[in-house]
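Appendix B: complex inputs.
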Amino acid sequence: MIRETWKKIAGKKTTEARWRPDGHVSGGIRPESMVWMFGTARTGSTWLSAMMGEIRGYSRWHEPLVGHLFGNLYYVRAGHRSKDEHFILGGEKDIWLRTIRSFVLDNASMRFPEVAEEGYLIVKEPQGSMGAPLLMEALPESRMILLARDPRDVAASNLDAHRKGSWTFDLERKGGKEKKETLADSQPDAFVRSQATRYVRDVGNAKRAYDAHEGYKALVRYEHLRADTIGTMRSMYSTLGLPVDEEDLARVVEKHAWENVPEQEKGEGKFYRKATPGGWQEDLTPRQVEIVEEVTGPLLKELYPA
Amino acid sequence: MTRNPGTPVRRSKIVRRLGGLARRAAAEAEKLRYRLAGGSGDGEAGVDAERVVWIFGSGRTGSTWLSAMMDEMDGHTVWREPLVGALFGNLYYERAGHRIDSRGKHFILGSSYKRTWFGPMREMVLEGAAARFPELLRGGYLVVKEPNGSVGAPLLMEALPESRMVLLVRDPRDVVASSMDARKEGSWLYENRGEEKRRGALPDRKPNAYVKKRARAYLQNIGNSREAYANHKGYKALVRYEDLLGDPPGTMKRMYASLGIEVGEKEILRAIEKHAWENIPEEQKGEGKFYRKATPGGWQEDLTPEQVKIVENITAPLLREFYPD
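Resulting structure:
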C-alpha cells in the first residue's frame, strides 16, 4: 500500500513540462505524442521515418541513440548487475526508470518545441533498439513501431555497406576520420555472423518491448512496405491510433519512392542499394545463409515463417 | 514455562541477527519516507552535490582499498561502482564520439544540448544516491568509487562542479600486470565471468594483445580522469597508489586536507589498521586472487620486456607525468 501511495505521489510529481530551476522550456512533450521506431539498421527506417516526418504535424528525431545509452550498459556491459542496488540501473526499477523518463521527455521538449503543444514526434531509433524494453517501460503511453526485415537481406545489405569504398567509408571521411577496414572484406563469414548476432540483440529486444507494450503499437515488415507502401502506411497509422491526411500520405510516398531516388545514388556500395526483398539469394553464399539462419533461428521463424 | 534461550553463543547470534534486521528495516523505512516525500519535488533535491566525493582512475589502482578505508570514517558512505560514468562516457567518447560536436539537435548527448542532458544526468546521480542512501539526506559524505566509470569523469565533474574528486593513479605497468593476473584462467575475475567472456579471455590466448588492450583502457580512463581533475575548480586530491602503500597515514591525511573534509587522526589510523595488507587472511592473497601482491614495481617480474614496451609506448604521456622516474 505504501508503495502504491508513493507511486501515485511520484507520478504526480513527475512534471514533463518542467525545466531545471535555472533553465527555460515550459510545456513539454507528452509521452503519448512520441512514436518510437525500433528494429535494426538497414531495415528501411530512414525511408519510413523520412515519409512519416514529412507529414504535417509530425517531426522526426533522427537516431538520438538514447536506447543505446541505457540499453548498452543495462544489457551488455553490466547485464549481470541488474539486481545490484549499487548499480545505477540496478535494484528497484522505479528509481531509475523515472529518471530515464524525464531524461527523454526533457530532451525531446527542448529539441522539438513545436511538438510540445500539438503534433507527434517520430523517434527513429534502430541503432538504439537494444534499449527498447527500458524505454517502453519508462514511457508506457508512447506508441511503438517494430520495423522488421528478413535478417538475410539485412546481413547482405550490411555486408555491402561495410566493404571498402562503400558509403560508410565516405560517411566517416566526412566526419574527419578514416574508416578502418572491417571484417566484411577480410573475413566475410565472420562479419555476417557478427551482423546476425547484432540482429538478434536489436530485433530481439525490440520484439520483447513490442510484446510487453500495452499501448498503441504496429508491426511493419519492410517487405510489405515495399510491395504496398501506401496501404501498409495507412494500416500502420490506423493501428497506432494516429491521424493522417490522405493527400499528405500520397505526397510523401511519391516523394520518397525508390523510383524517385536518382539513379547515380543507387546501387552496390551506395546507401540506396537494391531494395529488393529476397536479394540475399544473390548476395550471400550458401554458407553465409546458413550462418544467418542458424543465429537468427527463432526470430526468423517468428517474423518470416516461410 | 519459559523457552530455553540457548547457549550464550546462540543468543549472541540471535541478537546480532535481530540487530541486522532492525538496521535493514530502519533503512527501508528511511527510503520509503524519502519516496513518500515525492523524491525530487519541483526543484533539485537528493543528496547535496558538495557532499559527493568521486574516486576516479582505473580498475586495479587500489580503489577498493582506499574506499574501504574511507567507508570507516564517521558519516561516510560508499557507493560501489554505480557505473554512471560508464553509462554516459561510453556513448559520448566511444560509440558516438563523432557525433558530439555535430551542431544538430538529434544526438542525445550532443554538445549543443549539453545543458539539456546535464540536468537529468545530475538528477540521476543525486536522486539515485538519495534513494539508495537516504541517511545522507541528514548529512555525511558519499564516496563514489567509480574506477570503471572513469571514462565519463569529465562529464560528471562538469555536471557536478560542487562535488569533490580524488584522482587515484598507479603505475600503468603494475595495473596491466595486475589486470592480466585477474583474468587468467582460474583467477578470481575469470571465475566470476560468464562462459562467453571466459572463452574470449585474451590473457591466456594472446597475452600481448591483451596488454595492448589494457594499456589503451588505462590511457582512456586515467586520461579522462586527469582531464576532469585539471578542469575541476572545487576540492580535489591526487593520490598515487604507491604513496598510499608507502605512507598510508600521511597520504590519507593529505588527501582529506585537500578535499576539505575534516577527519580525526585516530579514525584514519583505525581504518588503516583494519584494512592493512597484513590483516588480510593469507588464504585470500596471492596470484590469481583479488588481493595479489600489493608491491609497487612488481611488473618487472610479471611482464615480458616486450609487454613493458607496449605499455610504456601507449601510456607514455601519463607515465611521464605521474611517474617521471
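Chain B has 16 helices and five strands.
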